[in-house]
Recover the amino acids of this structure.
């Protein structure tokens, strides 16, 4: 094998096809991973994750900053542990995610708590462990949080999530910065909400935040949002309400197909340039990236179980018939195609010499027509072939379910030529633990 003959996959700095046609994550053949750990299997590159965080932090070096990884993208404990060691804080959206931070050894003092529907129990727990900041998303949350803090004798640090009403140019389900979204507080209400927060003794205003959407591939919506936020900051400080930190959220896109999002350090540099022009560069700058940290670091490995259609069934000459490649991963493992119609790359894991390529719909075995991973893909496959779904590090395993009583996949972290099992495959017993049969007397009859 020579380095020259190997082929890097778009957007995936640590996944390549070697000269013999074998797909590798870092130094390991994915076929070996599938044999050792079974399929479906999520495999992540440690180097890709570490490098993506370092791109943000490199551009922020020398100034007060915090990169809070938005862990809903992928909340595996080992990944959180790795990211904490890289100096990340965390953006959480539930009490469950807070417990994950603690279980991974993360510092609650570097956690920002987002989400439109925080319960009082979640607020109390977050106050108890001392989160850095509550990103408040509604006027009533201000009142409820102040009450919970007062009741427990604590002071809640708050930032108001401002909805800057800018269009991030992304899919409607993942756009969050428009007036019509449920997220944040409308720009024209924000001043009043800050006045109220500043007047409540159990709250301390520490910053301002926004998050305008996901899979954003342009810098300009970020600059528009920042301008709107800075207008507010200036108005607030004229009234004597200090805003020490600016949290510009997450949302930076990745390459699924041919998208060319800015690099994280280019985005950060552009924002810093804008802050300098407007005289705000002294503030602590915070980010909440999720997808751009883990998205292109992960693959989903899955095996073809059954092939159907004219390309496979001898004698089937129906010109309308589709070819289906039914694999052992399904919508319960990977929701993005079913939920957003998302396109994700699918490639063969090993050499395909001698196999004729055909056009396939790659689908799972779940009893739903929406259960597909990719449509009209040209692949050379036979039953048992191993395939890899690309860009599957974010919003993939973290959205997995047990629909059809399917255990969730195992996860491995690849580091050079070593692989660590970071999550075991679920067994049927895991799935119904906690369920109770009726006592015989309750069956009636
Ligand atoms: C989901 C989310 C993020 C992360 O978004 P990505 O597109 O994954 O970077 C950041 N902040 C908040 C408040 C979120 O809800």
């Amino acid at each position: 094998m020579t380095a020259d003959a190997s082929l890097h996959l778009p957007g995936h700095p640590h996944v390549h096809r070697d000269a013999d046609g074998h797909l590798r994550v870092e130094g390991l053949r994915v076929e070996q991973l599938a044999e050792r750990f079974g399929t479906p299997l999520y495999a992540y590159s440690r180097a890709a994750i570490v490098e993506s965080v370092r791109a943000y932090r490199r551009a922020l070096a020398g100034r007060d900053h915090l990169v809070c990884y938005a862990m809903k993208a992928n909340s595996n404990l080992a990944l959180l542990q790795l990211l904490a060691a890289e100096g990340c804080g965390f953006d959480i959206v539930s009490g469950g995610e807070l417990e994950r931070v603690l279980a991974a050894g993360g510092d609650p003092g570097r956690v920002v708590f987002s989400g439109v529907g925080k319960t009082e129990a979640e607020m109390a727990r977050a106050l108890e462990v001392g989160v850095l900041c509550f990103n408040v998303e509604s006027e009533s949350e201000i009142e409820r949080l102040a009450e919970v803090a007062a009741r427990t004798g604590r002071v809640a640090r708050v930032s108001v999530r401002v909805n800057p009403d800018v269009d991030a140019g992304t899919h409607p389900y993942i756009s969050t910065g428009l007036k019509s979204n449920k997220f944040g507080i409308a720009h024209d209400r924000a001043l009043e909400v800050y006045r109220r927060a500043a007047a409540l003794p159990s709250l301390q205003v520490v910053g301002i935040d926004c998050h305008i959407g996901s899979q954003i591939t342009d810098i300009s919506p970020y600059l528009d949002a920042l301008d709107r936020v800075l207008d507010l900051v200036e108005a607030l400080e004229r009234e004597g309400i200090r805003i020490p930190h600016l949290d510009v959220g997450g949302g930076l896109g990745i390459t699924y197909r041919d998208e060319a999002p800015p690099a994280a350090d280019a985005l950060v540099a552009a924002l810093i340039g804008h802050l300098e022009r407007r005289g705000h560069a002294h503030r602590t700058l915070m980010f909440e990236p999720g997808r751009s940290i883990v998205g292109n670091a992960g693959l989903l490995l899955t095996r073809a179980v059954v092939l159907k259609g004219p390309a496979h069934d001898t004698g089937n000459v129906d010109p309308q018939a589709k070819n289906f490649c039914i694999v052992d991963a399904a919508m319960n493992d990977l929701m993005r195609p079913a939920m957003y119609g998302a396109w994700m790359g699918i490639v063969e894991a090993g050499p395909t010499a001698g196999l004729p390529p055909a056009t396939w719909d790659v689908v799972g075995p779940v009893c739903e027509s929406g259960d597909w991973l990719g449509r009209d893909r040209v692949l050379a496959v036979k039953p048992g072939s191993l395939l890899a779904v690309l860009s599957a590090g974010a919003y993939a395993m973290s959205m997995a379910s047990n629909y059809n009583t399917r255990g969730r996949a195992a996860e491995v972290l690849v580091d050079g030529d070593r692989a660590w099992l970071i999550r075991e495959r679920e067994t049927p017993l895991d799935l119904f633990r906690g369920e109770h049969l009726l006592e015989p007397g309750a069956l009636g009859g």
User: Anything to note?
Assistant: The two ends are 71 Å apart (CA to CA).
